[in-house]
Amino acid sequence: MERVVIPLHIGDSDIELAFDQGCVATADAKLDLAEIEIELKHGDRSEVARLAKKLMRITPFTLSVRSKAELGYALLEGPLDAPVFAEPVMMAREVTVADAFATAGFACLRQIAGNEGAVRNGDPEGIHQMRVGLRRMRAALSLFKDMLHDRKVKRLKRELKWLTEQLGPARDFDVFVNETLTPYRAKHPDRQEFEILEHDLERTRNAGFATARAAAGSKRFCSALLDCALWLLDGDWRNDTDALTQALRKRPARAFARDELARRIRKIGKRGRKLERLDWRKRHKLRIAVKKVRYGREFFATLRCDGRKAGRKLDSALKELQNELGILNDMRVHLERAREFASAGKAAKKAFAIGCLTGREESSASDVLTKALAAGKRLQKAA
């Protein structure tokens, strides 16, 4: 590895700018590298952010979330573009709310950026895991929203929403084909109408994968990740002079987590009591609320805001409620996606096949709703 190091003194800060070029290699694999590293030796981290932004205007580059050592181990263990799952979020018990948000945000960013290769290669699990990372990031923005008032938040949310939408069709159709159509086809291999539907769904799923690959390889994707990283590092949210916001930034994250998650769980419990009367939109919102709490509990897990036994009961009830609400939501998504084919060629045969598949799912909706209600009651007892 060849390295050129340029020491910089900017304002009152000392920064090391390093250019690395070479490769990471094992006995069976090799990866060429060209990297820029910016290390703050002393001073204000805002200078690091400003320097990175200047470099972005000079030359295009992507955000690297793995060290050279991590890349080497990844080469030994398997393909570099394997799906990346959520990592444990490590927080010290005395961490402040501001640092807790940054820690959680960077963990989400690592999962999003870490799945770029898998998405560009059309790996279904990589697409799913990038979507999970995006949902976790959006959950973090929601959990800490009382501290985030700068204008960059709206733009960041818009970019996260855009990327989520680019990945959505690939994931939705992949789940529909693998979990609904394929099992049914295995039981009825001679039904011609399902063969027609399968062909069209495969074509649409492939188009969804192409859209996802294009998004992950776009300048917009790279720019969004870099902007997010720099914002987490030194965004205006860190310097808001509002007295209440300043107090919140400095508040112990353990106390904040306990209060914020308890408040959200109470709201979920109230809505869960009338679950059978909610339309699909309100059920979907409830499901998102449950997800945010689950992600929040993952973010704050090392702070141990509750006892282990009580925490396990709470996590179990939240997981079950989310799973059942997720099944109900999948049924709705499958119905919407399937209807897109009913107006195309050979509509009658495809409509019949769609009716068989979605009708089969709808027949189990009552049982799923009953399980969701039971999970909601368990959650109220555990809270």
Lay out the secondary structure.
Layout: E1 2-10, E2 13-25, E3 30-42, H1 45-58, H2 68-77, H3 97-114, H4 116-120, H5 124-143, H6 152-187, H7 192-216, H8 219-234, H9 243-250, H10 253-272, H11 280-299, H12 308-339, H13 347-362, H14 365-382
Antiparallel strand pairs: 1-2, 2-3
What would your notes on this structure say?
- It holds the Pfam family CHAD.
- This is CHAD domain-containing protein.
- It comes from Bradyrhizobium rifense.
- It is built from 14 helices and 3 strands.
- The mean pLDDT is 89.
- The chain has helices at residues 45-58, 68-77, 97-114, 116-120, 124-143, 152-187, 192-216, 219-234, 243-250, 253-272, 280-299, 308-339, 347-362, 365-382; strands spanning 2-10, 13-25, 30-42.
- The longest helix is centred in the middle third of the chain and has 36 residues, at 152-187.
- Strand 2 (13-25) and strand 3 form a beta hairpin.
- It is mainly alpha-helical and 383 residues long.
- Helix content is 67%, strand content 9%.
- It has a 3-stranded antiparallel sheet.
- It folds into 2 domains: 1-60, no CATH class; 81-382, Alpha solenoid (CHAD domain), CATH 1.40.20.10.
